UniProtKB/TrEMBL annotation, chain A:
Protein name (Swiss-Prot/TrEMBL): Cytochrome c oxidase subunit I
Record gene name: ctaD3
InterPro entries, alphabetized: Cyt_c_oxase-like_su1_dom, Cyt_c_oxase-like_su1_sf, Cyt_C_Oxase_1, Cyt_c_Oxase_su1_BS
Keywords: Electron transport, Heme, Iron, Membrane, Metal-binding, Oxidoreductase, Respiratory chain, Transmembrane, Transmembrane helix, Transport
Cytochrome oxidase subunit I profile domain ranges (all copies): 20-595
Membrane topology annotation: Multi-pass membrane protein
One GO MF term attached to the UniProt entry: cytochrome-c oxidase activity
EC number(s) stated in the UniProt entry for this protein: 1.9.3.1
Automatic annotation (TrEMBL), chain B:
PROSITE patterns (UniProt xref): COX2_CUA, COX2_TM
GO molecular function: copper ion binding; cytochrome-c oxidase activity
Lineage: Bacteria, Pseudomonadati, Bacteroidota, Cytophagia, Cytophagales
Domain Cytochrome oxidase subunit II copper A binding: 162-316
Protein name: Cytochrome c oxidase subunit 2
Recorded superkingdom: Bacteria
Gene Ontology biological process terms from the UniProt entry: ATP synthesis coupled electron transport
Compositionally biased intervals (Low complexity): 349-359
EC number(s) from the headed UniProt entry: 7.1.1.9
Location in the cell: Cell membrane; Membrane
Length: 627, 373
């Protein structure tokens, strides 16, 4: 009786809520505090940045694949970076490489992926009205927006944007006289990254708080969907590692502008000896990679989390080894912090340290292998529906395996001597972190589009998009291994200066470039599908994929507060697919065991008496807080 | 050309699949309920495509590997290089097996267990034994690889043997400068970055007597064959990285922090020329740490020769002090006598008039430089 009374009270309250806060256009779509709107803002920003980032890569692929090509047709965009003879300027080539890396890693795969889906899915999947702090969440997006503006502006400087590689190692990045890309572009890069880090920290704190504090009744950590686990661990990683990058960036700003010598020592440049002594460029590398390596997992874990969810849903099978998946994600998250120096085997770091980091690095392969095997076993004896999201998830697993395996070679310091900073590395990380995470992002968009926009994306276009992209990415990055094994160093403007690179693989490089352009072209199918479906897509049903998680119990277009009335309680784990005895092949998390006696396992029957307790709980429903 | 054709065929494959699926949808629509059909045919096509992708992918991988393998790991010319090459191919073998098995399982399962109306997936949430197996097996394989790799790494990075020939390699934008310890004392002199100028481009400190016979070269690095060579590496301006592909040598050059790498070159340039049947072959040193505009062309040739001719070549080189006697002014009084040997006779008499000294010495280049000064 009490519950009913409470329910009506809440309903009344909700209505009241909606009445007394009519949002203006600005508050609703621009400076919104609603997690769903902020997620969409992140998504659209991410798509914009990915177009920019991939376009840059196409430009430098033209240079690498067709070194003799006249690039005059790019002059309307690049202006004087194309000289009279139609050649790309070598300084700008480095700027392209640098900005491609920065944009793809931070603005697309960190903000676009984690920002979109952590924001969108955490409250909906844990059963919360919104993020713990809507205001901080809004700030997080607008800091990101500011960072984006600063970075975007820097692309148009006369001296070009930052150009020392996405790792911006000093002294190159610290000395404006060393490089055009170390002038104003570098300053803006650092300012932009500082803003970006603030945005990540605000977001991360929010994700962590929401997962810990705002889970609905019955949603214990052992019932959390793997997506939420992944977002949670990602946020923890970001919260610990991003401040270190901030300190690295601050010290670099000091070295650049205030004459300090944190990273500078014994430098003679531009005809003069600089007064700086005592600094160490290696210090920067340690600080950078202390973020840089966890960053790889910040990018990858959310993709893996979403994939777990999508694969289980569409294979109509429980994810194999739910607890092992969580344990391996925790293992990866922990190990991510103690492997950073494997990026520095040949920097002159003490070789003993190199040995230690080799051991630690190869340990991380074990939880990764467990994850891959678990995905494959989840498919085994499933009843697989190939939705576009499922295709991209399977593609992700393939990339994760193919790219991850070469990590065994690069993590081995003795083998890294030859392969360090060659195209082998480029191939490795583009597959395992770039393409895999991008596929996670795309899978997520296809899967949760109905929840985001209340409409379906076109399946057929999704299939075509998948196959062209999947094939295209393998065609781009697989041959890069070969070029790397032949010893081709990365970040080279041309391969004409050396006998060992001069006359070989020019056809392979052309092929890679063609494949890259082809893959880029295929992405417009997605963009078109995305934009078209927002307005004209087929109306989404309540639960289009017959999925178990809570977001599908919310209205098709969830309003402010996500659920009208009471937030559903949770009684079971999210992976009760194809349970023997059940009449349907899925049982959503909010269905109590007492309603499914036909399919309950013995230990689950024992949980039935606890349901009353779960229902009686009142955890953190913001709409019930007095205010 | 082959690639373009392959690419085109892939595109057409995609388009064909599209047309087929569209056509099938139209045909099916006539008699089937729309919703069921949606899962039906497209699903079968996608499942089949995974199988086709697997087959074509395998063929493509094997073919392209064979095609590209001519250029893999250019012939190693150092013992440690052959050791890491072996480990590389060993690891490569292991991961290739894992690559084929796991990808094949992934795609075959996708095809085999695609949706069938009326079938129910197995409820198979966990199996601790399986989990244990695929935790332990990778762990054992990994331990094996780590152990072999670690031993190689330890040996490669060990202290250089006492009799190693020391050569210094200095990186700057955008070339390498080799500095040799000189034929008389075979010891590198001290340096100081504040002493760098146009002629003394490695900042040799002439107050150290060991530096009197040091000489430099910006075009070639000569090393003796079959003798440990210790490269002392440093950078003048920004990070660089010494990369000698044929020697399997790579080490960053860091301003303010000298680094080192020792190795044995066991094939002379001539031997390699004969072995490869390429009379134009030459060892090269590249830069693999981005250092600015000219990063891609920091080439210096590496010449490996037998010790005899190496010594002869060294003896022919002029110490920097001989080429630029004006640096004699930096030599402390008590060492002037020791340095006299490297200076033209007149130099000691009239140290202030360096122009005359150079002219008498007869070095065309240094005349030009000194008179410019």
């Amino acid at each position: 009786m009490a519950t009913v009374a409470q329910n009506t009270a809440t309903l009344a309250h909700v209505e009241e809520h909606e009445h007394h806060e009519p949002h203006s256009f600005w508050r609703k779509y621009i400076f919104s505090e609603d997690h769903k709107t902020i997620a969409k803002q992140y998504l659209i920003s991410g798509i914009f940045w990915s177009v920019v980032g991939i376009s840059l890569s196409v430009m430098f692929r033209l240079q690498l694949g067709f070194p003799d090509m006249k690039l005059s047709f790019l002059r309307p965009i690049l202006g004087s970076w194309i000289d009279e003879t139609g050649k790309l300027d070598p300084d700008f080539y480095l700027a392209l490489v640098t900005m491609h890396g920065t944009i793809m890693v931070f603005f697309v795969l960190t903000a676009g992926l984690s920002g979109t889906f952590s924001n969108f899915l955490i409250p909906l999947q844990v059963g919360a009205r919104d993020m713990a702090s809507g205001f901080l969440n809004m700030l997080s997006y607008w800091f990101f927006f500011l960072a984006s503006v600063v970075m975007f502006v820097s692309l148009f400087f006369e001296t070009g944007p930052a150009a020392g590689g996405w790792v911006v190692y000093p002294p190159l990045s610290a000395l404006p006289q060393a490089h055009k890309g170390s002038e104003a572009g570098m300053t803006y890069w650092l300012v932009s990254m500082a803003l970006f880090i603030v945005s990540q920290l605000l977001g991360g704190i929010n994700y962590i708080t929401t997962v810990i504090n705002l889970r609905t009744r019955g949603m214990s950590f052992s019932k959390l969907p793997l997506t939420v686990w992944a977002f949670f661990l990602t946020a923890v990683l970001g919260l610990i590692s991003f401040p270190v990058l901030l300190s690295a960036a601050l010290l670099l700003i000091f070295d650049r502008s205030f004459g300090t010598s944190f990273y500078l020592s014994e430098i003679f440049i531009g005809g003069e000896a600089l007064p700086n002594v005592g600094g160490s460029p290696i210090l920067f590398q340690h600080l950078f990679w202390f973020l840089g390596h966890p960053e790889v997992y910040i990018v990858l874990l959310p993709a893996l989390g979403m994939t777990s969810e999508i694969i289980a849903t569409n294979a109509r099978k429980p994810i194999f080894g739910y607890r092992a998946m969580i344990a391996s994600m925790m293992g990866i998250a922990f190990l991510a912090f103690i492997v950073w120096a494997h990026h520095m085997f040949v920097t002159g770091m003490n070789p003993f340290l190199g040995s230690i980091f080799m051991f630690l690095t190869l340990i991380i392969a074990v939880p990764s292998a467990v994850k891959a095997f678990n995905y494959i076993t989840t498919l085994w004896r499933g009843n697989i529906r190939f939705t576009p999201a499922m295709l991209f998830s399977i593609g992700l697993v393939s990339f994760f395996i193919s790219g991850g395996l070469t990590g065994l070679i690069l993590g081995n310091s003795a083998l890294d001597i030859q392969l360090h900073d060659t195209y082998f590395v480029v191939a490795h990380f583009h597959l395992v972190m770039g393409a895999a995470s991008a596929f996670g992002l795309l899978a997520g968009v296809y899967h949760w589009f109905p929840k985001m926009f209340g409409r379906m994306m076109n399946d057929k276009l999704g299939y075509i998009h998948f196959w062209l992209t999947f094939i295209g990415i393998y065609l781009v990055f697989f041959p890069m291994h070969y070029i790397g094994i032949a010893g081709f160093p990365r970040r080279y403007y041309a391969f004409t200066s050396y006998d060992f690179t001069k006359h070989i693989f020019s056809d392979m490089n052309s092929f890679i470039s063609v494949a890259a352009i082809f893959t880029f072209a295929a992405q417009w199918i997605f963009v078109w599908n995305f934009v078209y479906s927002i307005f004209k897509g087929r109306k989404a049903p309540q639960n289009p994929w017959k999925s178990n998680t809570l977001e599908w119990t919310a209205p098709i277009n969830p309003g402010h507060g996500n659920w009208p009335g009471e937030i559903p309680a949770v009684y079971r784990w999210p992976y009760d697919y194809s349970k023997p005895g059940a009449k349907d092949d899925f049982i959503p998390q909010n269905v109590p065991y007492s309603q499914t006696p036909e399919s309950n396992l013995p230990h689950e029957n024992e949980l039935i008496p606890l349901e009353k307790e779960i229902e009686a709980q009142n955890l953190n429903d913001q709409f019930k807080q007095p205010h | 050309m082959v690639y373009i054709i392959a690419l085109l065929s892939v595109i057409f494959l995609g388009l064909a699949a599209l047309v087929v699926s569209r056509m099938a949808a139209v045909v099916k629509n006539v008699n089937g309920p729309v919703d069921e059909e949606r899962i039906g045919l497209s699903n079968r096509i996608n499942g089949a495509l995974f199988l086709i992708f697997l087959v074509f992918g395998l063929v493509g991988v094997v073919w392209s590997f064979a095609h590209a393998s001519n250029y893999f790991l250019p012939e190693a010319s150092s013992p440690h290089g052959r050791r890491t090459d072996f480990l590389f191919w060993l690891s490569m073998g292991i991961i290739t097996v894992a690559f084929f098995i796991t990808n094949a399982l992934l795609f075959v399962f996708s095809f085999r267990y695609q949706y069938r109306p009326g079938r129910k997936a197995s409820y198979y949430p966990e199996n601790h034994k399986l989990e244990l197996i695929w935790t332990v097996i990778p762990a054992i394989v990994m331990a094996l690889l780590v152990f072999t790799g670690w031993r190689a790494w330890r040996d490669i990075m060990s202290e250089a043997p006492a009799d190693a020939q020391v050569v210094e390699l200095v990186g700057k934008q955008f070339n390498w400068i080799a500095r040799y310890p000189g034929v008389d004392d075979n010891k590198l002199g001290a340096y100081n970055y504040k002493l760098i100028d146009n002629n003394n481009d490695t900042g040799i400190d002439f107050s150290d007597p060991a530096s009197f016979d040091d000489f430099t070269s910006t075009t070639e690095l000569h090393i003796p064959v079959n003798k440990p060579v210790l490269l002392k590496i440093r950078a003048r301006d920004v990070l660089h990285s010494v990369f000698i592909p044929h020697m399997r040598v790579k080490m960053d050059a860091v301003p303010g922090m000298p680094t080192r790498f020792w190795f044995i070159a066991d094939k002379t340039t001539d031997q390699m020329r004969n072995e490869l049947g390429n009379q134009d072959f030459g060892y090269e040193i590249a830069c693999t740490e981005v250092c600015g505009r000219g990063h891609f062309s920091m080439r210096i040739r590496l010449i490996v020769e037998d010790e005899e001719s190496w010594k002869k070549w060294c003896a022919e080189q002029k110490p920097l002090l001989t080429s630029y006697p004006e640096y004699a002014s930096r030599i402390p009084e008590n060492l002037k006598a020791k340095a006299a040997k490297y200076l033209p006779a007149v130099e000691t008499a009239t140290p202030s008039d360096s122009t005359t000294a150079s002219t008498q010495q007869g070095g065309g280049v240094s005349v030009a430089t000194t008179s410019l000064r």
